[in-house]
Please model this.
Amino acid sequence: MSFIESIASIIQKHGIAFLEATTITISITAVSLIIATVIGLVFAFFKVSNIWILEKLADLYIFIVRGLPLIVLIMFLYYGISSVIVLSDFVAGAVALGIHSGAYLAEIFRGAIQSVDRGQNEAARSLGMTAPLTMSTIILPQAFKRAIPALGNQFIIGLKDSSLVAYIAVTELFSHALTASAENYMPFETYLVVGFYYLALVLIFTLLLNYVEKRLDTGVVGRKLKKNAFSS
Model:
């Protein structure tokens, strides 16, 4: 059987199963990123709160999560705490991915928030706006826009990291590739096919992020064009 025929046979036999596994990969990535975003925002607020105990708590969380391999965190949540609470493979995987990515998102959000001119915060407070209102309506929108490139990179890393949940029996893309390669004895061709699936997902994700970034930049570009028109 030639190389092309091998690829064709894998796609013919496992194509539908790979598509079904892709939906699970997308689902667990989406859930984990929601968890990571919430955790990241909370600990970013802790870092910029100027409250000593909250800052140290955020530092401790970030230090521990960054120091642990993701696979250890996944195994701990699935097997290690089973005597206390039993989590399904999907939930354990999504929570582990979320906790892991949350540490990196916390630093991204923290840097983006601190990059906004402090004068804007002071001006808003002088106008009588509360700290939560200032953060939600003035600081966060600007910080989010500035953080999009770094967030995009971290989201793509999270998508690729989701392959590790195969080791707790989540039937996502890489898990099905492991099963398929064991059945057909063609590991090179099988992993090549699943690699293209991951590349397609990353491409789609990248295009979506680029679209969001351009949409958020529309107002800025429009104001610049208008300014240039009046000055000419």
